């Protein structure tokens, strides 16, 4: 793989970031983390208070990409068939009501960039309708499997403040998300810019900058990024150190955690690090890439214990403890420098 290939990929990603930035004010870290999910071929859960632009970010990203976009507004009365679709009997007009055939009426899950808005407002039965699509990129309706068109990505949003009438996502479904991105409140300067842009006669519009084939090429290139064995071992040690049952886990983490990340968490850690390296235009993953993606990858996979919650710890704070407890071995660092 040539350096020119990664330089071209970096240029394409910068064009996409610039196009999104014409509509979204600030939130640079959020935009970059969402791109990690898109390039890594995973799904992203966006969590933030109302009015922070979560839905606008997903819609803007869809406008910048030549992908099929669909939106699912989750509500308590939403049914699984409203998400995946159903077979509908279509009568033959010439048969006088005596003939007809079942035709698949596809649901909004048959998109490429799917916005699952306020996903925690639907019942667990409806939430589970997404599991097969997110894990296998297929949908089963009436015993028939239907493949979803690639690239397929679910970008879900949830509001952590208003919890009345909501259904928290089960751990098995949270684990299907490559990243959980926390959307922060804007700074004073960013808020002023939002007001200037959105209270005028016209709001800025995004332009389409990448085609479907270009997105697929970037995803394939992301998979080809090299990861040296010392970096892989570092990622594996991080995940193992999050397990309170592991004898090598530090006493502080054993006390703070009830469950840690699993195999899918380790896979997500490496994939997200590859995406971070691709955004930087680099052909290999560094230790720093693992550290950068640790919070969005692990924050929804770590379950705090009663003691951890009683001490007021957050999962992000526990990830900081995790990174501090797992040292990069000097031999690993030297080996990575030699390979770079």
Structure notes:
Helices cover 47% and strands 15% of the residues. It has 340 residues and is α/β, with parallel strands linked by helices. It folds into two domains: 3-74 and 110-200 and 209-214, Rossmann fold, CATH 3.40.50; 225-339, Helicase, Ruva Protein, domain 3 (Orthogonal Bundle). The protein has a five-stranded parallel sheet with strand order 2-5-8-1-9. It has a two-stranded antiparallel ribbon with strand order 3-4. The chain has a two-stranded antiparallel ribbon with strand order 6-7.
Short structural description:
The protein is of the alpha/beta class and 340 residues long. The chain is 47% helix and 15% strand.
Per-chain topology:
Layout lengths: L2 H19 L6 H13 L3 E4 L6 H11 L4 E5 L6 H5 E7 L8 E7 L6 E5 L6 H4 L3 H6 L1 E4 L2 E4 L5 E6 L12 H4 L4 E4 L5 H11 L13 H13 L4 H13 L9 H6 E3 L3 H17 L7 H12 L4 E2 L1 H5 L4 H11 L4 H10 L1
Parallel strand pairs: 1-8, 1-9, 2-5, 5-8
Antiparallel strand pairs: 3-4, 6-7, 10-11
Helix pairs in contact: 2-12, 9-12, 10-12, 10-16, 12-13, 13-15
């Amino acid at each position: 793989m040539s350096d020119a290939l990664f330089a071209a990929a970096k240029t394409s990603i910068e064009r996409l970031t610039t196009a999104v930035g014409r509509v979204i004010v600030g939130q640079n870290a959020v935009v970059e983390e969402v791109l990690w999910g898109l390039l890594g071929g995973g799904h992203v859960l966006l969590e933030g208070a109302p009015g922070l632009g979560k839905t606008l970010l997903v819609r803007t990203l869809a406008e910048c990409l030549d992908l099929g976009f669909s939106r699912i507004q989750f509500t308590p009365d939403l049914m699984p068939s409203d998400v995946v679709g159903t077979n509908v009997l279509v009568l033959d007009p010439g048969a006088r009501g005596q003939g007809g055939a079942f035709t698949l009426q596809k649901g909004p899950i048959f998109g490429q960039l799917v916005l699952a808005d306020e996903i925690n407002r639907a019942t667990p039965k409806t939430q589970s309708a997404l599991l097969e699509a997110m894990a296998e990129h297929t949908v089963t309706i009436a015993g028939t499997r239907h493949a979803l068109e690639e690239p397929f990505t679910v970008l879900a949003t949830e509001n952590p403040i208003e919890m009345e009438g909501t259904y928290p996502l089960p751990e098995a479904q949270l684990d299907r998300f490559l990243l959980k991105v926390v959307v922060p409140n804007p700074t004073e300067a960013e808020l002023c810019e939002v007001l200037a842009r959105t209270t005028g006669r016209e709001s800025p519009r995004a332009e389409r900058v990448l085609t479907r084939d270009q997105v697929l090429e970037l995803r394939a290139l992301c998979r080809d990024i090299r990861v040296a064995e010392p970096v892989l071992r570092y990622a594996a040690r991080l995940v193992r150190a999050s397990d309170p049952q592991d004898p090598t886990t530090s006493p502080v983490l054993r006390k703070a955690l009830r469950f840690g990340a699993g195999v899918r968490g380790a896979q997500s850690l490496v994939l997200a690090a590859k995406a971070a390296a691709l955004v930087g235009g680099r052909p290999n993953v560094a230790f720093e890439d693992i550290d950068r993606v640790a919070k969005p990858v692990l924050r929804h996979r770590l379950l705090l214990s009663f003691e951890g919650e009683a001490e007021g710890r957050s999962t992000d704070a526990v990830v900081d403890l995790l990174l501090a407890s797992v040292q990069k071995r000097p031999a690993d660092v030297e080996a990575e420098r030699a390979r770079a």
